[in-house]
Design goal:
- The protein has about 290 residues and is mainly alpha-helical.
- The chain has one domain (about 1-280).
- About 80% of the residues lie in helices and about 0% in strands.
- The protein is built from 13 helices and no strands.
């Protein structure tokens, strides 16, 4: 999980460099192409067929996941690396919010008091994180970053459904990559292509490669490690992103933003623990 988290943080660095030359739609498409090649080879090496009896479920997961990826890439393009990474890692808090919302609908809110507290604390952390963004006229990018976390949570729930339906991880990730390519191509039809050069394109392959490495390592971690320990170690990605943001980009975040990140990490860990009691043995959440 630590390797996976570091891979996703490095991918964020590559996205920020690539975003200086390509728009978010292009990056989503290019990342899809690279991941399709990698996941196709991985599926073949495992002897996993890419044919599916559940195209509708894959389509929904792919659309939501690709939208989450697009939102995250946009946030990475316009926000400090640590801020964009933190907002994307809010998926655990969003899932807790969905569970609380379901409990309210069925009149069982009194059973979800602890989970509700983690949700409120998590969104309190968001307010702290986004305050510097608001002061620097980056609120829109911050809201898009929040949306990346929310859609990642929806995609995660769909991955859970696909896993319970017996769909192998290689097939799920392959169709996610395919959906990313299709969404990116549709977007490029409106945004157009940016000038192409080998010097700028050098960042594209690492984006897809690091995303695939991160997903493979994360899957292996959940398959062989203690679920709760692994689930909480994913937040090391925020720590890695924070360090890389300072070292590579010279990001300077005020104390209130760092405090907000700590609140979100703490809330996410608590939400993961409480959520596991409600929906145990679920597959890993995906990032990137």
């Amino acid at each position: 999980m630590l390797v996976a988290a570091f891979a996703f943080a490095l991918m964020g660095v590559c996205v920020k460099f690539a975003a200086e030359h390509y728009n978010a739609m292009e990056l989503v498409a290019y990342r899809g192409v690279v991941s399709i090649v990698i996941m196709f080879a991985w599926a073949k090496s495992l002897g996993v067929s890419l044919k599916t009896q559940r195209p509708g479920m894959h389509a929904w997961r792919g659309i939501i996941g690709a939208l989450s990826l697009l939102a995250w890439f946009y946030a990475l393009q316009n926000l400090p690396l640590a801020t964009a990474m933190t907002l994307n890692y809010m998926s655990s808090i969003w899932i807790a919010a969905f569970l609380v919302g379901g409990a309210l609908m069925f009149g069982k809110a009194e059973q979800q008091g602890a989970l509700l507290a983690t949700v409120l604390a998590g969104f309190g952390g968001v307010v702290l994180v986004l305050r510097p963004a608001f002061e620097q006229n980056q609120l829109w990018a911050g809201m898009i970053g929040m949306m990346s976390g929310m859609t990642a949570a929806l995609a995660y729930l769909q991955v859970t459904a696909l896993s319970r339906a017996g769909e192998p991880e290689a097939r799920v990730v392959f169709y996610f990559a395919l959906a990313s390519l299709l969404l990116g191509v549709c977007g490029i039809a409106f945004t157009g292509f940016s000038p192409w050069s080998a010097k700028h394109a050098i960042w594209i392959v690492p984006i897809g490669l690091l995303a695939s490495v991160g997903q493979l390592c994360m899957t292996r971690a959940y398959a062989s490690g203690a679920t709760m320990l692994v689930a909480n170690l994913q937040y090391s990605g925020i720590v890695f992103a924070s360090a890389l943001g300072v070292i590579v980009f010279g990001d300077e975040l005020p104390l209130i933003a760092w405090l907000g990140m700590l609140v979100i990490i703490g809330s996410g860990i608590a939400a993961t623990i409480l959520r596991n009691r409600t929906i145990p043995n679920t597959p890993p959440e995906e990032h990137g």
